[in-house]
């Protein structure tokens, strides 16, 4: 978290005037869309990405790949249904510039791709991107044969001097500050001359389901991956060199972006249906079924999608969120409205996300009269009667949606810069008012 920003745009978060009852169609997953784009760009033949998320993070990814020479065209999928991107791989060229914005997936997943380009690729982004950890990727790529000029900072801005190919091989990294370091190396590894063996040597590893998502998606495009969860050595992933297939991939709804809508049902004692909730998924948001059930709701996976129902009673929770860190802001918001205290653990690395999320949540919930304290690796939240006020977002999409959740139950909450939700959910304000209108 940097200094409290001054922003003219204050969005009055709507107060719920009863139990919500709505069906909310949630756009595609950011994490799946950006992995899908990278894998399709590295494939040996064209592929399709259907129902991709179109938000700041994914448009930055598409724009960067186009700058490297990849064709990404608008179209309908091969079966004629649904919006789609057709991805046409090409020889990756250098002398390009990549704007990462504040997208972790772009700033981590693309430097290995740039190492395969045939010239320099300059990476730059929002001021916050300079502060987010990147050394794991930079050091690993150097060890695998890449030349990177970062002026010794270990962070953005930097230039990757693509050599047209990369040796690859064995590398040790400390991914305790971001699972995306591991995902980044694995995603491009089929194109490294020797593939890769990544060994994580740090004390902790956050967001493991996101690494599982990387492995699953690599396998879908034909890559051979050895990994801990299917009998491999703990903390070691191996990807063999191979050509990748061009696939027709349908992107699942973003389950982490379903969170505020599920929270609305939980808090108001209402019901929200999320169509197309996958039966099996590596998305961490799937764990909301369990977490929000423990906090007082109930859910059922039906043909219509996930039906989530609340009673209006919300319980506190003691939970380790290390696997699902990106759900923390929404869970903290619900916990602030609960009937008992909560402890959220295992998420120290959130201090280096879009903003310092632990500091930001503490400051903003306490600014509304709450009692949140930071612990070494999370938050302790004692519910208090909250009052209205400005909820600052620090350019963090999940801070904005967390404020909206609180605003359902607390009159007079105004969200500063709700437009920051465009990072992953550009239509959030309209979707939110639509849900409250019962659409
Ligand atoms: O690989 C991914 O798509 C993501 C991994 C996680 O990052 P960290 O491991 O840095 O928490 C998650 O928080 C982020 O929203 C998306
Ligand atoms: C941490 C997040 O994003 P990023 O991909 O930028 O790391 C997030 O979406 O909560």
UniProtKB/TrEMBL annotation:
Residues 19-430 form the Enolpyruvate transferase domain. Phosphoenolpyruvate binds at residues 30, 104, 132, 180, 357, 398, 423. Keywords: Amino-acid biosynthesis, Aromatic amino acid biosynthesis, Cytoplasm, Transferase. Transmembrane segments: none annotated. It catalyses: 3-phosphoshikimate + phosphoenolpyruvate = 5-O-(1-carboxyvinyl)-3-phosphoshikimate + phosphate. The active site is at residue 326. InterPro entries: Enolpyruvate_Tfrase_dom, Enolpyruvate_Tfrase_sf, EPSP_synthase, EPSP_synthase_CS, RNA3'P_cycl/enolpyr_Trfase_a/b. Pathway: Metabolic intermediate biosynthesis; chorismate biosynthesis; chorismate from D-erythrose 4-phosphate and phosphoenolpyruvate: step 6/7. 3-phosphoshikimate binds at residues 30-31, 35, 178-180, 207, 326, 353. Its EC number is 2.5.1.19. It is found in: Cytoplasm. Gene3D superfamilies: Enolpyruvate transferase domain. CDD domains: EPSP_synthase. Pfam families: EPSP_synthase. Monomer. Belongs to the EPSP synthase family. Catalyzes the transfer of the enolpyruvyl moiety of phosphoenolpyruvate (PEP) to the 5-hydroxyl of shikimate-3-phosphate (S3P) to produce enolpyruvyl shikimate-3-phosphate and inorganic phosphate. This is 3-phosphoshikimate 1-carboxyvinyltransferase. The gene is aroA.
């Amino acid at each position: 978290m940097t200094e409290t920003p001054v922003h003219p745009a204050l969005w009055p978060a709507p107060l719920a005037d009863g139990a919500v009852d709505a069906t909310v169609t949630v756009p595609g997953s950011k994490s799946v869309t950006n992995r899908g784009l990278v894998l399709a760009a590295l494939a040996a033949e064209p592929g399709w990405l259907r129902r991709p998320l179109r938000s700041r993070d994914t448009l930055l990814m598409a724009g960067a790949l186009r700058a490297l020479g990849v064709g990404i065209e608008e179209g309908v999928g091969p079966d004629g249904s649904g919006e789609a991107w057709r991805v046409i791989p090409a020889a990756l060229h250098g002398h390009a510039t990549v704007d990462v914005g504040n997208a972790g997936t772009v700033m981590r997943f693309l430097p290995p791709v740039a190492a395969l380009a045939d010239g320099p690729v300059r990476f730059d982004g929002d001021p916050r991107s300079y502060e987010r950890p990147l050394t794991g990727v930079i050091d690993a790529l150097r060890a695998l044969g890449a030349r990177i000029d970062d002026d010794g900072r270990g962070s953005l801005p930097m230039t990757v001097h693509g050599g047209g190919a990369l040796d690859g091989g064995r590398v040790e990294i400390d991914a305790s500050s971001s699972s995306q370091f591991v995902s980044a190396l694995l995603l491009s590894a089929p194109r490294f001359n020797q593939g890769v063996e990544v060994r994580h040597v740090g004390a902790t590893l956050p967001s493991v389901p996101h690494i599982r998502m990387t492995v699953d998606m690599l396998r879908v495009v034909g890559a051979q991956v050895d990994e801990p969860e299917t009998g491999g050595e703990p903390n070691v992933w191996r990807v063999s060199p191979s050509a990748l297939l061009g696939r027709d991939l349908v992107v699942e709804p973003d389950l982490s972006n379903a969170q505020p809508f599920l929270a609305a049902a939980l808090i108001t004692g209402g019901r929200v249906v999320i169509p197309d909730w996958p039966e099996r998924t590596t998305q961490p948001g799937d764990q909301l079924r369990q977490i929000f059930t423990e906090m007082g709701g109930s859910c059922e996976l039906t043909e219509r999608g996930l039906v989530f129902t609340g009673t209006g009673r919300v319980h506190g929770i003691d939970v380790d969120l290390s696997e699902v860190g990106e759900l923390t802001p929404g869970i903290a918001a619900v916990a602030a409205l609960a009937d008992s205290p909560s402890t959220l653990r295992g998420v120290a690395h959130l201090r280096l996300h879009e903003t310092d999320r632990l500091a930001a949540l503490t400051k903003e919930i306490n600014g509304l009269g709450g009692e949140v304290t930071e612990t070494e690796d999370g938050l302790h939240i004692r519910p208090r009667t909250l009052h209205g006020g400005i909820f600052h977002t620090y350019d963090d999409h999940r801070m904005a949606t967390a404020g909206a959740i609180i605003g359902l139950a607390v009159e007079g909450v105004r969200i500063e810069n709700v437009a920051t939700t465009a990072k992953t959910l550009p239509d959030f304000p309209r979707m939110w008012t639509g849900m409250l209108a019962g659409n």
